[in-house]
Amino acid sequence: MSKQIKKSSFIASPLKTEHSPIELIDVLGTRSKDFVETSLLRSYALENLPPKEATIIFKEKADFQSISNRLKDFKDSVKILSESEDQIWLPTWEIHRPKIDGCTATLQKSSTSETDYSLNIKVFGIGGGVSKSRNVGYKDTIEAFGECLQVRLPITSTVQECITKKGEKFTRVSVKNIGTIPSAIELKGSSDFCGLDPSKIKKSLWETRYIDVPQKTTQKIDLSVQSSQGAQLDLELKIAGVTIGPKAVLKLQKQIDYSYKLVGPYRYIAYFPKNAITYCWTVK
């Protein structure tokens, strides 16, 4: 590992509870249709209702009022059979570099004060579970000169086995906490998206940059990831070997800067995979 993440360099805002569409409907009452789109409510219902209930909504092509009524009935009818806690890790920043001796990648300082957050994190519960959000920032510089690196945060979830009044069992996951003590790991094998075949990168239509570095030459290059860039992740919380979620959404609140040192003679390809918030590398 090139460098450990220092606890003192990491900053985080207070934890917030994210309202679900059905909770917004409870709060806003008759005005809820002005603020909650039917398509959003339908998606939430399909993801959170037990399969039989979700199938009914899908087949009926139910309207806003019908969906909200079903969600309220579902919310009021749930009985908890058992409860446990689990911890999973959420990838936040990543630092990738070409796997050529002498090449380095550096994540520059992204925050300057205790309120200067660079990343917004939202982790959504499933099955009607509670969702949470937190803003985070990192005030130091991380350099990778070995394997690519990933900075992660711990997510604590409450897993509840539930049953409805109609006798249908389902699993509900609520997010209890988004941790504030990060951990850095090396990315290896399939977890590292560097080293893809150039022909596949070309066909992907991802944002791509080519950098030619001559023999006996060292070149420095800076690449930035713009604010508002985001990614959606499925977190691998498993029950009986089956991944059930939850989902996390990352959104950059400010520009993130990376600096790279490249050595020749190679043609480097920096590419930005869909649903990513950092560049990856390969050599042609």
What is the beta-strand fraction? over 45%
DSSP summary: helix tally: 5
| Structural class label | alpha+beta
The average pLDDT is: 89
Q: How many strand elements?
A: 17
Taken from the alpha-carbon principal axes, the silhouette is elongated
Number of domains: 1
Contiguous runs where pLDDT drops below 50 for at least 5 residues: none
Major β-sheet profile = 6 strands, antiparallel
Taking all Cα atoms into account, the compactness measure Rg is 22 Å
Task: Explain what you see.
The chain is an alpha+beta fold. It has one domain. Helices cover 18% and strands 46% of the residues. The protein contains 5 helices and 17 strands. It has helices spanning 21-28, 38-48, 51-60, 64-77, 198-204; strands spanning 10-12, 16-18, 79-95, 104-107, 119-124, 131-138, 142-144, 148-163, 169-178, 183-187, 207-213, 218-225, 230-239, 242-252, 256-263, 266-272, 280-283. The strands form 4 sheets. Strands 1, 2, 5, 6, 13 and 14 form a 6-stranded antiparallel β-sheet that branches. A hairpin with a 2-residue loop joins strand 13 (230-239) and strand 14. Helix 2 (38-48) packs antiparallel against helix 3 (51-60) and helix 2 (38-48) runs parallel beside helix 4 (64-77). 28% of the residues are buried. The model has no long low-confidence stretch (mean pLDDT 89).
